[in-house]
Amino acid sequence: MSSITETLMNLVQQTAFCNISVGNYLMIIVAFVFLYLAIRHGFEPLLLVPIAFGMLLVNIYPDIMADPYTDAAGIEHAGGLLHYFFTLDEWSILPSLIFMGVGAMTDFGPLIANPISFIMGAAAQLGIYLAYFFAILLGFNGKAAAAISIIGGADGPTSIFLCGKLGQTGLMGPIAVAAYSYMSLVPIIQPPVMKLLTTEKERKIKMSQLRPVSKLEKILFPIVITTVVCLILPSTAPLVGMLMLGNLFRESGVVKQLTETASNAMMYIVVILLGTSVGATTSAEAFLNVTTLKIVALGLVAFVFGTAGGTLLGKLLNKMTGGKINPLIGSAGVSAVPMAARVSQKVGSEADPTNFLLMHAMGPNVAGVIGTAVAAGTFMAIFGV
Which of 53, 119, 251, 266 is the most buried (most CB within 10 A)? Predict the structure, then answer.
Protein backbone atom coordinates (compact mmCIF):
# COMPACT_ATOMS: atom_id res chain seq x y z
CA MET A 1 0.00 0.00 0.00
CA SER A 2 2.84 2.36 0.87
CA SER A 3 4.45 1.78 -2.54
CA ILE A 4 1.18 2.72 -4.26
CA THR A 5 0.94 5.86 -2.17
CA GLU A 6 4.56 6.72 -2.94
CA THR A 7 3.97 6.19 -6.65
CA LEU A 8 0.90 8.41 -6.63
CA MET A 9 2.81 11.09 -4.71
CA ASN A 10 5.62 10.95 -7.25
CA LEU A 11 3.10 11.39 -10.07
CA VAL A 12 1.51 14.36 -8.33
CA GLN A 13 4.92 15.95 -7.72
CA GLN A 14 5.73 15.63 -11.42
CA THR A 15 2.68 17.61 -12.49
CA ALA A 16 3.08 21.26 -13.44
CA PHE A 17 0.82 22.26 -10.54
CA CYS A 18 3.65 21.49 -8.14
CA ASN A 19 6.44 22.99 -10.20
CA ILE A 20 5.33 26.39 -11.52
CA SER A 21 5.06 29.74 -9.78
CA VAL A 22 2.38 32.39 -9.48
CA GLY A 23 4.24 34.28 -12.20
CA ASN A 24 3.90 31.31 -14.52
CA TYR A 25 0.15 31.28 -13.95
CA LEU A 26 0.02 34.99 -14.77
CA MET A 27 1.88 34.40 -18.05
CA ILE A 28 -0.48 31.52 -18.87
CA ILE A 29 -3.38 33.96 -18.50
CA VAL A 30 -1.58 36.40 -20.83
CA ALA A 31 -1.19 33.56 -23.35
CA PHE A 32 -4.93 32.88 -23.14
CA VAL A 33 -5.63 36.58 -23.79
CA PHE A 34 -3.37 36.56 -26.86
CA LEU A 35 -5.08 33.42 -28.16
CA TYR A 36 -8.47 35.05 -27.62
CA LEU A 37 -7.44 38.18 -29.51
CA ALA A 38 -6.00 36.14 -32.36
CA ILE A 39 -8.84 33.64 -32.74
CA ARG A 40 -11.89 35.63 -31.68
CA HIS A 41 -10.95 39.04 -33.08
CA GLY A 42 -8.50 38.05 -35.83
CA PHE A 43 -5.58 40.19 -34.57
CA GLU A 44 -2.84 38.85 -36.86
CA PRO A 45 -3.45 35.20 -35.97
CA LEU A 46 -0.47 34.01 -38.04
CA LEU A 47 1.74 35.79 -35.50
CA LEU A 48 -0.20 35.68 -32.27
CA VAL A 49 -1.31 32.03 -32.30
CA PRO A 50 2.23 30.52 -32.39
CA ILE A 51 3.60 33.22 -30.05
CA ALA A 52 0.83 32.69 -27.52
CA PHE A 53 1.16 28.92 -27.71
CA GLY A 54 4.92 29.11 -27.18
CA MET A 55 4.22 31.34 -24.17
CA LEU A 56 1.74 28.78 -22.84
CA LEU A 57 4.15 25.86 -23.30
CA VAL A 58 7.18 27.44 -21.63
CA ASN A 59 5.23 28.55 -18.57
CA ILE A 60 3.75 25.08 -18.08
CA TYR A 61 6.94 23.19 -18.90
CA PRO A 62 10.01 25.50 -18.64
CA ASP A 63 12.38 22.70 -19.70
CA ILE A 64 11.05 22.99 -23.25
CA MET A 65 13.55 25.88 -23.54
CA ALA A 66 16.33 24.22 -21.52
CA ASP A 67 19.91 24.45 -22.79
CA PRO A 68 21.77 21.23 -23.56
CA TYR A 69 24.19 20.23 -20.80
CA THR A 70 26.67 17.59 -19.70
CA ASP A 71 26.09 16.05 -16.26
CA ALA A 72 28.65 15.09 -13.63
CA ALA A 73 28.99 11.63 -15.15
CA GLY A 74 29.96 13.13 -18.51
CA ILE A 75 26.67 12.21 -20.16
CA GLU A 76 25.40 14.79 -22.67
CA HIS A 77 21.75 15.78 -22.47
CA ALA A 78 19.84 17.40 -25.29
CA GLY A 79 18.16 20.76 -24.83
CA GLY A 80 14.45 21.41 -25.00
CA LEU A 81 12.66 21.40 -28.36
CA LEU A 82 12.10 25.15 -28.52
CA HIS A 83 15.71 25.85 -27.52
CA TYR A 84 16.75 24.66 -30.97
CA PHE A 85 14.06 26.76 -32.65
CA PHE A 86 15.33 29.77 -30.70
CA THR A 87 18.92 29.06 -31.75
CA LEU A 88 17.82 29.71 -35.34
CA ASP A 89 16.60 33.13 -34.17
CA GLU A 90 19.94 33.86 -32.46
CA TRP A 91 21.82 32.90 -35.60
CA SER A 92 19.60 35.31 -37.64
CA ILE A 93 18.47 32.48 -39.90
CA LEU A 94 14.72 32.74 -39.36
CA PRO A 95 14.51 36.56 -39.58
CA SER A 96 16.39 36.51 -42.88
CA LEU A 97 14.14 33.79 -44.31
CA ILE A 98 11.08 35.79 -43.22
CA PHE A 99 12.41 38.72 -45.26
CA MET A 100 12.80 36.49 -48.29
CA GLY A 101 9.19 35.40 -47.94
CA VAL A 102 8.00 39.01 -47.55
CA GLY A 103 9.88 39.98 -50.69
CA ALA A 104 8.35 37.11 -52.66
CA MET A 105 4.85 38.10 -51.51
CA THR A 106 5.09 41.87 -52.03
CA ASP A 107 4.59 44.03 -55.09
CA PHE A 108 7.17 46.84 -55.03
CA GLY A 109 5.42 48.56 -57.94
CA PRO A 110 3.78 51.33 -55.83
CA LEU A 111 7.17 52.31 -54.42
CA ILE A 112 8.77 52.36 -57.86
CA ALA A 113 5.86 54.35 -59.30
CA ASN A 114 6.03 56.96 -56.53
CA PRO A 115 9.66 57.30 -55.33
CA ILE A 116 8.64 60.04 -52.89
CA SER A 117 7.39 57.13 -50.78
CA PHE A 118 11.01 56.52 -49.80
CA ILE A 119 10.99 59.81 -47.89
CA MET A 120 7.83 58.89 -45.98
CA GLY A 121 9.28 55.49 -45.17
CA ALA A 122 12.39 57.20 -43.82
CA ALA A 123 10.35 59.69 -41.76
CA ALA A 124 8.49 56.82 -40.09
CA GLN A 125 11.82 55.66 -38.64
CA LEU A 126 11.74 58.73 -36.37
CA GLY A 127 10.37 56.59 -33.55
CA ILE A 128 13.39 54.29 -33.71
CA TYR A 129 15.92 57.04 -33.17
CA LEU A 130 13.89 58.80 -30.48
CA ALA A 131 13.40 55.53 -28.62
CA TYR A 132 17.15 54.96 -28.73
CA PHE A 133 17.82 58.14 -26.79
CA PHE A 134 14.90 57.50 -24.42
CA ALA A 135 16.33 54.04 -23.68
CA ILE A 136 19.72 55.57 -22.90
CA LEU A 137 18.00 57.95 -20.48
CA LEU A 138 16.31 54.99 -18.78
CA GLY A 139 19.67 53.39 -18.08
CA PHE A 140 20.14 50.92 -20.95
CA ASN A 141 23.59 50.67 -22.53
CA GLY A 142 24.06 51.66 -26.18
CA LYS A 143 23.64 48.21 -27.71
CA ALA A 144 20.60 47.38 -25.59
CA ALA A 145 19.05 50.76 -26.44
CA ALA A 146 19.60 50.16 -30.15
CA ALA A 147 18.05 46.68 -29.98
CA ILE A 148 15.01 48.02 -28.11
CA SER A 149 14.52 51.02 -30.39
CA ILE A 150 13.99 48.89 -33.51
CA ILE A 151 10.59 47.94 -32.07
CA GLY A 152 9.49 51.33 -33.41
CA GLY A 153 9.69 49.95 -36.92
CA ALA A 154 6.98 47.41 -36.04
CA ASP A 155 9.25 44.79 -37.57
CA GLY A 156 9.66 41.62 -35.51
CA PRO A 157 12.27 39.89 -37.71
CA THR A 158 14.52 42.97 -37.76
CA SER A 159 14.21 43.31 -33.97
CA ILE A 160 15.30 39.69 -33.51
CA PHE A 161 18.08 40.06 -36.08
CA LEU A 162 19.55 43.16 -34.41
CA CYS A 163 19.30 41.62 -30.92
CA GLY A 164 21.38 38.68 -32.06
CA LYS A 165 23.95 40.79 -33.88
CA LEU A 166 24.42 43.16 -30.93
CA GLY A 167 24.70 40.31 -28.43
CA GLN A 168 21.50 41.21 -26.60
CA THR A 169 19.93 37.76 -26.59
CA GLY A 170 18.99 38.23 -22.94
CA LEU A 171 16.54 40.92 -24.05
CA MET A 172 15.39 39.15 -27.19
CA GLY A 173 12.25 37.69 -25.63
CA PRO A 174 10.69 40.92 -24.36
CA ILE A 175 11.83 42.84 -27.46
CA ALA A 176 10.46 40.27 -29.90
CA VAL A 177 7.16 39.87 -28.06
CA ALA A 178 6.74 43.66 -27.86
CA ALA A 179 7.55 44.05 -31.57
CA TYR A 180 5.16 41.32 -32.69
CA SER A 181 2.46 42.48 -30.29
CA TYR A 182 2.59 46.01 -31.67
CA MET A 183 2.58 44.61 -35.21
CA SER A 184 -0.60 42.77 -34.32
CA LEU A 185 -2.13 45.84 -32.70
CA VAL A 186 -1.43 48.20 -35.63
CA PRO A 187 -5.19 48.56 -36.34
CA ILE A 188 -5.75 49.72 -32.76
CA ILE A 189 -2.68 51.88 -32.08
CA GLN A 190 -2.29 53.77 -35.35
CA PRO A 191 -5.76 55.24 -36.13
CA PRO A 192 -5.97 57.56 -33.07
CA VAL A 193 -2.53 59.00 -33.88
CA MET A 194 -3.42 59.42 -37.56
CA LYS A 195 -6.73 61.14 -36.79
CA LEU A 196 -5.14 63.39 -34.20
CA LEU A 197 -2.57 64.70 -36.68
CA THR A 198 -4.82 65.10 -39.74
CA THR A 199 -7.98 66.99 -40.55
CA GLU A 200 -11.07 65.38 -42.04
CA LYS A 201 -10.44 67.33 -45.23
CA GLU A 202 -6.94 65.87 -45.50
CA ARG A 203 -8.22 62.35 -44.86
CA LYS A 204 -10.69 62.73 -47.73
CA ILE A 205 -8.00 63.60 -50.29
CA LYS A 206 -8.11 61.27 -53.28
CA MET A 207 -4.79 60.58 -54.93
CA SER A 208 -4.35 60.17 -58.68
CA GLN A 209 -3.79 56.70 -60.07
CA LEU A 210 -0.20 55.47 -59.97
CA ARG A 211 1.63 55.19 -63.26
CA PRO A 212 2.14 51.72 -64.73
CA VAL A 213 5.48 50.15 -63.82
CA SER A 214 7.28 48.14 -66.47
CA LYS A 215 8.56 44.62 -65.96
CA LEU A 216 12.12 45.82 -66.55
CA GLU A 217 11.80 48.37 -63.72
CA LYS A 218 10.49 45.70 -61.36
CA ILE A 219 13.38 43.37 -62.21
CA LEU A 220 16.06 46.04 -61.91
CA PHE A 221 14.71 47.48 -58.64
CA PRO A 222 15.76 44.64 -56.27
CA ILE A 223 19.15 44.36 -57.98
CA VAL A 224 19.86 48.10 -57.76
CA ILE A 225 18.60 48.43 -54.18
CA THR A 226 20.69 45.48 -53.02
CA THR A 227 23.79 46.85 -54.69
CA VAL A 228 23.42 50.41 -53.42
CA VAL A 229 22.28 49.66 -49.86
CA CYS A 230 24.72 46.81 -49.25
CA LEU A 231 27.66 48.83 -50.62
CA ILE A 232 26.84 51.59 -48.13
CA LEU A 233 25.86 49.32 -45.22
CA PRO A 234 27.20 45.79 -45.87
CA SER A 235 25.81 44.58 -42.54
CA THR A 236 22.27 44.91 -43.94
CA ALA A 237 22.95 42.23 -46.55
CA PRO A 238 21.23 39.37 -44.67
CA LEU A 239 17.96 41.33 -44.44
CA VAL A 240 17.93 43.60 -47.49
CA GLY A 241 19.57 40.92 -49.61
CA MET A 242 17.01 38.26 -48.72
CA LEU A 243 14.11 40.74 -49.11
CA MET A 244 15.26 41.69 -52.58
CA LEU A 245 16.10 38.12 -53.57
CA GLY A 246 12.55 37.07 -52.75
CA ASN A 247 11.21 39.98 -54.78
CA LEU A 248 13.49 39.11 -57.69
CA PHE A 249 12.07 35.57 -57.60
CA ARG A 250 8.63 37.14 -57.93
CA GLU A 251 9.34 39.67 -60.64
CA SER A 252 11.74 37.73 -62.86
CA GLY A 253 8.97 35.32 -63.81
CA VAL A 254 11.43 32.48 -64.49
CA VAL A 255 11.48 30.79 -61.06
CA LYS A 256 7.82 30.35 -60.22
CA GLN A 257 8.54 27.29 -58.08
CA LEU A 258 10.96 29.29 -55.91
CA THR A 259 8.47 32.15 -55.64
CA GLU A 260 5.70 29.81 -54.53
CA THR A 261 7.95 28.04 -52.03
CA ALA A 262 9.35 31.26 -50.53
CA SER A 263 5.95 32.94 -50.22
CA ASN A 264 3.97 29.92 -49.04
CA ALA A 265 5.44 26.69 -47.66
CA MET A 266 8.77 28.10 -46.46
CA MET A 267 7.21 31.30 -45.12
CA TYR A 268 4.63 29.44 -43.04
CA ILE A 269 7.17 26.94 -41.70
CA VAL A 270 9.45 29.78 -40.63
CA VAL A 271 6.55 31.67 -39.01
CA ILE A 272 5.72 28.57 -36.94
CA LEU A 273 9.33 28.12 -35.78
CA LEU A 274 9.92 31.80 -35.12
CA GLY A 275 6.57 32.45 -33.46
CA THR A 276 6.71 29.54 -31.04
CA SER A 277 10.36 30.19 -30.14
CA VAL A 278 9.67 33.88 -29.53
CA GLY A 279 6.70 33.01 -27.35
CA ALA A 280 8.84 30.51 -25.47
CA THR A 281 11.22 33.27 -24.34
CA THR A 282 8.46 34.68 -22.12
CA SER A 283 8.90 32.54 -19.05
CA ALA A 284 7.77 34.31 -15.90
CA GLU A 285 11.35 34.55 -14.63
CA ALA A 286 12.56 36.28 -17.79
CA PHE A 287 9.50 38.39 -18.52
CA LEU A 288 8.00 39.65 -15.27
CA ASN A 289 10.47 42.34 -14.29
CA VAL A 290 10.97 46.10 -14.50
CA THR A 291 13.28 45.82 -17.51
CA THR A 292 10.52 44.18 -19.53
CA LEU A 293 8.05 46.90 -18.57
CA LYS A 294 10.54 49.53 -19.75
CA ILE A 295 11.02 47.71 -23.06
CA VAL A 296 7.28 47.42 -23.67
CA ALA A 297 6.78 51.12 -22.83
CA LEU A 298 9.70 52.21 -25.04
CA GLY A 299 8.37 50.08 -27.88
CA LEU A 300 4.99 51.77 -27.67
CA VAL A 301 6.59 55.23 -27.60
CA ALA A 302 8.75 54.33 -30.60
CA PHE A 303 5.79 52.97 -32.55
CA VAL A 304 3.61 56.01 -31.85
CA PHE A 305 6.36 58.44 -32.83
CA GLY A 306 7.11 56.41 -35.96
CA THR A 307 3.47 56.64 -37.00
CA ALA A 308 3.48 60.36 -36.21
CA GLY A 309 6.71 60.98 -38.13
CA GLY A 310 5.36 59.40 -41.32
CA THR A 311 2.00 61.18 -41.01
CA LEU A 312 3.57 64.60 -40.38
CA LEU A 313 5.87 64.25 -43.37
CA GLY A 314 2.79 63.27 -45.38
CA LYS A 315 1.20 66.54 -44.29
CA LEU A 316 4.30 68.47 -45.36
CA LEU A 317 4.37 66.77 -48.75
CA ASN A 318 0.66 67.48 -49.05
CA LYS A 319 1.39 71.20 -48.71
CA MET A 320 4.36 71.06 -51.07
CA THR A 321 2.40 69.26 -53.81
CA GLY A 322 -0.68 71.46 -53.55
CA GLY A 323 -2.86 68.85 -51.87
CA LYS A 324 -2.03 65.88 -54.10
CA ILE A 325 -0.84 63.58 -51.30
CA ASN A 326 -3.10 62.21 -48.58
CA PRO A 327 -1.09 62.41 -45.32
CA LEU A 328 -2.58 59.12 -44.13
CA ILE A 329 -0.29 57.11 -46.38
CA GLY A 330 2.73 58.40 -44.45
CA SER A 331 1.68 56.40 -41.41
CA ALA A 332 2.24 53.23 -43.45
CA GLY A 333 5.96 53.98 -43.34
CA VAL A 334 6.32 51.67 -40.35
CA SER A 335 7.31 48.34 -41.78
CA ALA A 336 4.36 46.18 -40.76
CA VAL A 337 3.51 44.89 -44.26
CA PRO A 338 0.75 45.04 -45.39
CA MET A 339 -1.05 45.80 -42.10
CA ALA A 340 -0.05 49.46 -41.89
CA ALA A 341 -1.13 50.06 -45.50
CA ARG A 342 -4.50 48.49 -44.74
CA VAL A 343 -4.93 50.82 -41.78
CA SER A 344 -4.26 53.83 -44.03
CA GLN A 345 -6.94 52.53 -46.37
CA LYS A 346 -9.38 51.93 -43.51
CA VAL A 347 -8.98 55.38 -41.96
CA GLY A 348 -9.25 57.03 -45.37
CA SER A 349 -12.39 55.10 -46.28
CA GLU A 350 -13.98 56.07 -42.97
CA ALA A 351 -13.69 59.71 -44.06
CA ASP A 352 -14.82 58.94 -47.61
CA PRO A 353 -16.02 55.43 -48.53
CA THR A 354 -15.02 56.02 -52.17
CA ASN A 355 -11.41 56.80 -51.28
CA PHE A 356 -8.94 54.06 -52.20
CA LEU A 357 -5.50 54.54 -50.66
CA LEU A 358 -4.20 50.97 -50.32
CA MET A 359 -1.87 50.91 -53.32
CA HIS A 360 -0.58 54.41 -52.55
CA ALA A 361 0.11 53.38 -48.93
CA MET A 362 2.01 50.28 -50.06
CA GLY A 363 4.81 52.54 -51.34
CA PRO A 364 5.73 53.98 -47.90
CA ASN A 365 5.00 50.57 -46.35
CA VAL A 366 7.61 48.81 -48.47
CA ALA A 367 9.98 51.75 -48.01
CA GLY A 368 9.53 51.31 -44.26
CA VAL A 369 10.72 47.70 -44.46
CA ILE A 370 13.88 48.85 -46.20
CA GLY A 371 14.21 51.81 -43.83
CA THR A 372 14.02 49.65 -40.71
CA ALA A 373 16.66 47.29 -42.12
CA VAL A 374 18.86 50.31 -42.88
CA ALA A 375 18.33 51.60 -39.32
CA ALA A 376 19.45 48.22 -37.99
CA GLY A 377 22.48 48.31 -40.28
CA THR A 378 23.30 51.81 -39.09
CA PHE A 379 23.32 50.68 -35.46
CA MET A 380 25.52 47.71 -36.33
CA ALA A 381 27.93 50.03 -38.12
CA ILE A 382 27.98 52.42 -35.13
CA PHE A 383 28.88 49.57 -32.76
CA GLY A 384 31.32 47.94 -35.17
CA VAL A 385 29.35 44.73 -35.58
Answer: 251
